[in-house]
Amino acid sequence: MSAPDWAPLTGFRVAVTSARRADELSALLRKRGAAVTSAAAIEMVPLPDDHELRMHTERLIDAPPDIVIATTGIGFRGWVAAADGWGLANELIASLRAARIVSRGPKATGALRAAGLPEEWSPESESSRELLQYLLEGGIAGRRIAVQLHGATDDWDPFPEFLDRLRAAGADVVPIRVYRWHPAPRNGDFDQLVADIAEQKFDAVSFTSAPAVAAVLMRAAEMGIEDRLLSALRTNVHAMCVGPVTARPLVRLGVPTSAPERMRLGALARHITDELPLLQSRTLQVAGHKLEIRGTCVVVDGVVKELSPAGMATIRALAHRPGTVVCRADLLRALPGSGTDTHAVETAVLRLRTALGDKNIVSTVVKRGYRLPVDEPLARAQ
């Protein structure tokens, strides 16, 4: 048999919100067939200009911590690089060397060891919760704890509960917010991306950091479309996150999320490739054909059939209740725009039949409407 002329993500539209490595993620998704739209949700505050980071660094040099927590590899390396730029790297490493050092995962561990700072312990799960439990069991009352954080914005902190639990246990916490972020500027590509998510013009949106999630939510609120955006994310636009920390702001709002087992960019691309067709496609056996309905196309017997927005709206409306007659008035309401002439339905059906290649896939029921003559629904119908 010949290979299909489509890739796993053919016909699916994915929004990419990453600030870092967006081109890499976009390329991985496009290679798998997705139509990708990318707009960075956040912008980084340059480390040399981050006066808060320098102030906390100098505080730790003057009063070394008892415990150091490294949460990300890039964040810890960035902190050391910033200190080096200020001529403070040697003093910083010396102040941290006498402390108990714990790491949230292998990348943070690698960054610590590269700086000559061996870790005391790191959870295999890369879980902040497990890391917190380890510290609480050992007792931290009265201890001065430096927590290297990655991805804070001026309006949002990715680890508020983590820091609060440390303080509640009696610790003096010094938060080291490396790579603070601002939301992307107004009235640009990011605003359009947020509006398109709310309009359900994507099948999935990818998030590689919790600050990007926060920026999307904040911008939607500023634009007055927060309710529509959340409705989209709770229904037809699937939130694909790189890991549980990234997903947490959405989970709190009742948004379903999914994530790969490993918190890596390549793993996220593979996860989207594997999961999105299961979540956002519908497969039926119709008039002797295998029909798979995707985001922007239909695959008929392994052949991609490109459809117009009106064609996609029509086939989805018919597939909502396979085999059942759908009246012209209901199909008219499903079409893009707000037309009132049912002749638009007849035109849409005619063009849909032509695009599908077999007029029998959409059958006419005289004086009632149209239906998909289903042979049997397949397992992936949803």
UniProtKB/TrEMBL annotation:
CDD domains: HemD, trans_reg_C
Keywords: DNA-binding
GO biological process: phosphorelay signal transduction system; regulation of DNA-templated transcription; uroporphyrinogen III biosynthetic process
DNA-binding region coordinates: 281-374
The UniProt record lists the keyword Cell wall biogenesis/degradation: no
Molecular function as annotated in GO: DNA binding; uroporphyrinogen-III synthase activity
Pfam families membership: HEM4, Trans_reg_C
The OmpR/PhoB-type domain, residue ranges: 281-374
Annotated InterPro entries: 4pyrrol_syn_uPrphyn_synt_sf, 4pyrrol_synth_uPrphyn_synth, OmpR/PhoB-type_DNA-bd, Sig_transdc_resp-reg_C-effctor, UROS/Hem4, WH-like_DNA-bd_sf
NCBIfam families noted in UniProt: PRK07239.1 (NF005568)
PANTHER family for the chain: BLR5956 PROTEIN (PTHR40082:SF1)
Protein name (database record): Uroporphyrinogen-III synthase
